[in-house]
């Protein structure tokens, strides 16, 4: 990524030079954290396996044999209703959040949008858990299709299936959230409070121009008579400074300023 930002993607950082910087203590802490997390994951997995009898471990996957034996596993009604309750309460909380905070200022509306989106995401996960629990107890016949095999396999390890659903839902939510908050730069371009400041065209000269652009005599001397009718030109004085746009990854200490000349 750093190589790309210094070569083919250099315009994305306003042609700034980026160097790779590394500290040995950072690598050490990262390695120790990775080893610790791996040990914890192995311990949690082995803790569940050790609690089972050796005979069941030697015969293979107990749950898979249980499904293929033709019997119907009991439905965990507590887990199913828990997922439905979580979905109902999260949906209700999202609706209330939008009702009470959806008509405030821009910061409040943004907070309400992401808060309601997170609550609806939790509601969807709760509903998915309930559906997985109900589907796990609905198999009473032999597999007839590849889709049935996939659905049965998704209910076989409902926790893993729910984790995949959560990851995909988070990714889709972020994409939709970014797309929904994207503003058209040309919308309301004639307003002073827009991103364009209400100006149609911007021009920049290498040297200062002290003449009045709105003067008819100066327009005649420059051969612009008739081309600037119904056009008001506002001159600005530019004070050089740091780039404060999104192309600058650094924090602008002294941003570039434009001062209108009266």
Features:
single chain; 262 residues; mainly alpha; two-stranded antiparallel ribbon; 9 helices; elongated
Report the strand count: 2
| Termini Cα gap | 47 Å
Helix-strand category:
mainly alpha
Mean pLDDT: 78
Helix content: 40-55%
The strand order across the widest sheet is: 1-2
In N-to-C order, the SSE pattern is: HHHHHHHHHEE
Number of structural domains: 3
Query: Strand fraction band?
Result: under 5%
| Shape type | elongated
Radius of gyration (CA) equals 31 Å
Characterize the largest beta sheet: strand count, sense, and whether it forms a barrel: 2 strands, antiparallel
In the predicted model, the low-confidence regions spanning at least 5 consecutive residues are 62-73
Number of helices: 9
Task: Provide a descriptive summary of the structure in words.
Helices cover 53% and strands 3% of the residues. It is mostly helical and 262 residues long. It has a two-stranded antiparallel sheet with strand order 1-2. Helix 5 runs antiparallel to helix 6 and helix 6 (106-136) packs across helix 7. The longest helix has 31 residues, at 106-136. Residues 62-73 have low confidence and may be disordered.
Topology:
Elements: H1 2-5, H2 24-50, H3 54-59, H4 62-68, H5 77-101, H6 106-136, H7 146-156, H8 158-180, H9 216-221, E1 236-239, E2 257-260
């Amino acid at each position: 990524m750093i190589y790309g930002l210094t070569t083919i993607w250099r315009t994305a950082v306003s042609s700034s030079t980026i160097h790779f910087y590394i500290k040995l203590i950072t690598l050490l802490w990262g390695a120790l954290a990775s080893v610790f997390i791996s040990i914890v994951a192995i311990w949690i997995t082995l803790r569940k396996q050790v609690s089972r009898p050796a005979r069941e471990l030697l015969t293979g996957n107990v749950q898979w044999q249980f499904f293929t034996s033709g019997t119907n596993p009991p439905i965990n009604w507590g887990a199913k209703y828990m997922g439905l309750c979580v979905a109902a309460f999260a949906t209700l909380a999202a609706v209330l959040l939008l009702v009470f905070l959806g008509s405030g200022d821009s910061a409040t509306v943004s907070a309400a949008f992401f808060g309601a989106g997170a609550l609806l995401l939790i509601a969807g996960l709760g509903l998915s858990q309930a559906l997985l629990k109900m589907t796990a107890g609905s198999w009473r016949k032999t597999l007839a299709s590849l889709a049935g095999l996939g659905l049965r396999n998704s209910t076989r390890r409902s926790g893993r299936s729910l984790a995949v659903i959560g990851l995909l839902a988070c990714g889709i939510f972020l994409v939709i959230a970014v797309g929904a908050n994207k503003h058209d730069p040309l919308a309301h371009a004639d307003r002073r409070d827009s991103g364009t400041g209400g100006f149609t065209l911007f021009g920049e000269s290498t040297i200062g121009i002290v003449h009045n652009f709105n003067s008819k005599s100066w327009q005649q001397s420059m051969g612009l008579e008739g081309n600037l009718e119904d056009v008001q030109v506002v001159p600005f004085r530019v004070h050089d400074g740091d780039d404060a746009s999104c192309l600058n990854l650094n924090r602008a200490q002294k941003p570039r300023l434009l001062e209108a000349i009266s």
